[in-house]
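Table S2 (text version). Query chain:
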Amino acid sequence: MTTPVQERIAAFPDGNSLVSIEKSRLVVGNSEGLVKIYDLNQPDLEPKSVDIENNLTYLIQTRDDFLFITNTSGLVEVVDLSLLNQAIDIAAKTIYRSELALRTIQPIPMQNKVAVGGDDKKLVILNINQEKREFVVDKTVELNDSIVDLSLGDDETSLIISLANGDVKIFDLDVDEDEEAFIFQRSHVVPIKIHTSIDNIDYVVEHSDELVSTRIHATSNGDLIVPNINSIKILSSVDYSDLHELDASNTVQIVSTHLTPDTNYLAVLYVGGLVKVFDLKARSMEKSFAISLADEQLAINVQWSAHADLFFGTTNGEIVYFKGVIDIPATSNNNKNGTSLFLDEEAEDSAEEAFDNIVKKDKERVQQSGEDSMIIDEDDDDDNDIDLFGDDVHPYKRHKSNKYSNGSASTTSGSGSLNYSAGRSSKNDIEDLQPFSPGATPWILDSKHSAATGSVQRRYLGINSIGYVWAVRNLGQDIQSQHVTVSFYDRSSHKDYHFTDHFRFDLCSFNQRGLLLGYSGINERKSKGHIAKIYYRHHDTETDSWEKNIPLLPHEVVTSICVSNSNNAIITVGTSFGYLRFFNLYGVCINVLKVNPVYALVSSSTAHLFTVNQISPNIYTYSLIDINQDYKYIQQDVLLPLKRPVGDLQQSSDLIKGIFFNEFNDPCLVSNYDDTLMILQSWRDCNNSKWVPILNCHNVITEYGTNSNKKNWKCWPLGLFRDQLHCLILKNNNAYPGFPLALPIELEIRLPIQVYIKSDKGKKSRDILEEDEEEDELLAQDNEQEDEAIKELFNDNDPEENFLRSLTMGKIVSDSLNDDNITLDDDENDEIMERLTKYSILFDKSLLKLFADSCKDSKLNRALSIARLIKTDKALLAASKIAERMEFLNLSTKIGKLRDELLDDE
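Corresponding structure-token output:
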């Protein structure tokens, strides 16, 4: 498989550039308000330029020489390309205006119409008068959500509508009554895509969640090509049922797709610049290569040319293209558009020469201006602006009906169609389970390697509080091996080491003693007799290392592995069919259990196994097993208060962001849905366990929204020790840690109990602000003071949070004293008692502060309620003196009675 060579056209110095190709015409639109039109048949000519509105969102050409453009200002602009060869300056003309941003537009050639949609939840269809080249609104159809994409059905008499909530509707253009026009409706088909951009679109950082493909293509036989988050589904033209899934094991988010004119080949662009070309007839991957761009820049759309070249728009103004990506016959009989996928041999040579001339002239212009946009920034620390892992499209029941029947199809989401009491997932649900390791990341392209030299990918197999394990592989070669490195934060305990991995391990667990790796078998999950594999070794020696094959059933994969840190360490392997296999450190299988499908495993230093199991697509349970007590269940199949973040593309769609035990062997989870750290309290008592949220990571990292420099920062949790979360800080809106790995930091836990809503007193219209600069300065001062107030509310001086934190953590630490599995020496016991004393003091101080504040505000009933929470005579005496000093004698008397009751109880 040869890798095509990358070429560039520096069409613009910066800004988002989108490409559209029709006939021999290459159109490049830029977000800074300009369109350039390249005529490939006349390479010596400079490109034509046309001014347009800023911040375009979509552009498309038609066969009858119209160029349509939408933007965030809510305008539809048209450029009449038939006037290009006339000696006049052509201009963009506004033909429709919406109050909200428009996101997509689709010409309907057979009916001389064009459809447009966007944030205002309306489908607008315009009629085209070809003779006068004029446009008029034909009809407006109200929808239940914003439109994110439009495309034509195979016969060009139906319109495929993708909505922001993931629903898809097919609209019959020949039906007059709007309520009868929808021939197909289904929920949860495409990824959820919520547009938040209202002017400039920053795909790299602020609006990276908008860079996900929702466009559906119709093939010549009527099948639908539907994008998931990171794979492509082919739906039947008869009943819209699933026929096939392309790239099912891929974890990288899809950005853009485009079909060849004969609908036989599909180009798929992924975040990070990965490109794959699929042969839809063979339903196989034809070619895979990578785009090389400057650091932090992204490719944002893809287009086929008539001679099998692929063109890509980018976020840095330039256009990237690859010549002759696929090789097929020069003509195709199966071509619904009446044009060949390829030009004839002479035309192809002419086009290639034209491309070369364009690039040559472009380079000359760049050199003359003293700029060189061809230089690639080799700093790849932010290459992982990838929002991956998981499939947001849930299984659903399919209603098999006639393709053109009226009414909507009856559909049910996966979570609603399954019975929880059955205790098992369907086959589709099981196949949706992916390998999970704490701290693991997707493969990330290395921008230091170009497509010409072979692309290198890297990923973290696992990251925890003691170190990290990462793998490197070369895409330019046949991927049969990868290089694995094990690194430690504390180099005095162990030395880093690395080795060549011939099994392509994709699962990982490690502790202070050794390393456990596993191959899940996911790439062969549909094969009979396929196997998984685990490998264990001590960090400092390979003497006792071993490998073990794990038998799998068809469609089964290993989903999680873990090794305990106890003296009698146990290795656990869980699968998507719910098999739990236990091994000692020398590879001897010592037990097998059957449970619900395993999502994640983690083990404590006391050989307590914490399991997360999937019941249905969005229902999960957890269990706690004491391996040392003959695999006794301490908690069994308790519902987990988490759900997958469907459609939240700034994060991965995994259920869990972090999973670990603290030093007292309490299970801890960080939800990927709300970025909240939870700790399991009272789990040692049967049927009494409860999850307590002790930190909202996002709020703390971003300083509760008061620091604009940190608004896109994220937290990558590693472990909880004492009252501090050990974590990595992800900057620049990155979803995953980059290379090299930053050192962990510590965040003080803070219970999420307070909320502060900023006032809108600083909001004014632009006109008013321009007229009153003095008022603008005053508002800026007010906003600064308000931000400081927010910080003060959430700092260590917040008595209400201090009170609840001391109470919560005091209970958790106290529970550890009653754990029979923990043997404490004198120093450890003294440390626990010291922490309990600290919590007790903080408890009393915070309540006294709340009491005093209530007295100052003359809220005496509130003050008395706070006094009733105080548990020590000393603190009650202090409260009584505060009341006396403020001359609330009646309150002081009531507190005296509380003291008497306290003494009687003792």
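Notes on Table S2: The two ends are 82 Å apart (CA to CA). DSSP finds twelve helices and 54 strands in the chain.
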